[in-house]
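We store amino acids, tokens; thus:
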Amino acid sequence: MSPVRAALTLWLAIAAGAACAQNWPAKPLRLIIPLAAGGNLDIVTRSIAQKLTEVFGQQVIVENRPGVNSVVGTEYVAKSPADGYTFLMMSSTYLTTPLLTRNVPYDPLRDFTGVTLLAWLPQLMVVHPSLPVKTVKDFIALAKARPAEINYASAGTASVGDLATELFNRRAGIRTNAIPYKGNAPALIDTVGGQVQMFFGAIGPMLPYVHTSRLRALGLSSLKRSPLLPEVPAISETLPGYEAGLFIAMVAPAAVPREIVARMHGEIGKIMQAPAMKTRLAELGDEVAVSAAPEQFTAFLKAEYAKWDRVIKEAGIKVE
């Protein structure tokens, strides 16, 4: 193809994309959730869909397409037309599943373009009160003095809390033993009972135990403190840069026109900053975390993917 023809083809593609964006949306949109109904992702998505329907004057339909640890729904969006009418609502498993599952039929970075981060759910590091530590610094010192003697509750291989713990171990230069559980609830129960000494989990279920001193909160896996527990420091205050948690976000097929991505990003930003939405997320233990721009979110995804790829390989984590 000659340079002139190539330039003309590119110009026509850009013009077509701009025209498409101007008329968008001209029909109903779909937000695909690759998980079963229920849970934070589902609740947040449905709240957003209702508001987007009002803004666009077009029905915004939420579809749950669970299966194979989110692979089914994610693949569906990856192979959908890049016309701006199908978006993927995703959580952290979007990045970790391809690192732990063979032959995933999509690339989470190459086959999608980021729209925006929506919310962040940090993990709370708690210990049983019998453990003689009151701070993250104390815990690290004890773990170094008693290498591989402290047990932590794992809510599942490569779960958010499991990965948060492995990242913590590596940043702190310590070793702790994973005691596997089938989910967060039994892991939390045994931590409260003293069968295990430490646990990383969502803030909400922990609060009653922390407030009644049945668990001791040492730190939050975020870069700042939470208004739910303002007296509990961020772990990053002891280990600079430490951050690990569950995030909720939106991506689109890679070739969706930039104008459409920018419009969606802008409208969602307004929705997420509304006081009612902030209150709703706070009830779930989530923090509003809208990206400044789609490009910033895409960079965030790349950095998170590289971080967890390194942690999973170093820890030798494998899904049975």
User: Anything to note?
Assistant: The CA atoms of residues 25 and 74 lie 22 Å apart. The first helix runs from residue 3 to 22.
